[in-house]
């Protein structure tokens, strides 16, 4: 004789409704969902659904953990601390540890802002506009708290123009990078958990200035300055 289908239960978590089985809620016997299922005095809503006064959206990950015994989060997920708190409330130690391990941000990592800027132009060949090449950068500037800048850019950071390089707990606008690859700078910021929050750009009125020896007039006309603000929360 075939086994009877599992009993389907409905939950109300902060106003968000879920459907699951009795076996799923009992997967972790010491958890709050299992205790609520066996407690006739646990709060229920007007339709008799087991009620938890918690974050209804984050409960989807709690329920997934009870179903599958593992944790899978979207790539853009940023609420690790909140989910870890929910896991602790539901007495799911395995989920709490999994959430903390999945958090890409070290627990004591310093928050802050770094601004990256560069002055550039476009490299032209002998045929002028007909032979235009990719952008030409003279230097990538780095501004921010010294400890943050060193943490992100490491050995690629040039501190030779900074007169106070013996002091760490301060801010500076005199750092620049030893290379001229703006995408490499962006990759290093992204790997350290920084997000781009703002940017701006403008021309530098190079066409009106007197040219320095060896400077191409066409390249000088296309001079521009761009700045990007990155924040780590």
UniProtKB/TrEMBL annotation:
Keywords annotated in UniProt: Cell membrane, Cell projection, Membrane, Phosphoprotein
Domain Potassium channel tetramerisation-type BTB as annotated: residue spans: 10-95
The KCTD8/12/16 H1 domain, residue ranges: 112-232
GO annotation, cellular component aspect: neuron projection; plasma membrane
Localization in the cell: Cell membrane; Cell projection, Neuron projection
One of the protein's GO biological processes: protein homooligomerization
Superkingdom to which the source organism belongs: Eukaryota
InterPro entries referenced in this protein's UniProt entry, alphabetically: H1_KCTD8_12_16, SKP1/BTB/POZ_sf, T1-type_BTB
PANTHER family named among the record's database cross-references: GH08630P, POTASSIUM CHANNEL TETRAMERIZATION DOMAIN-CONTAINING
Protein name: BTB/POZ domain-containing protein KCTD12
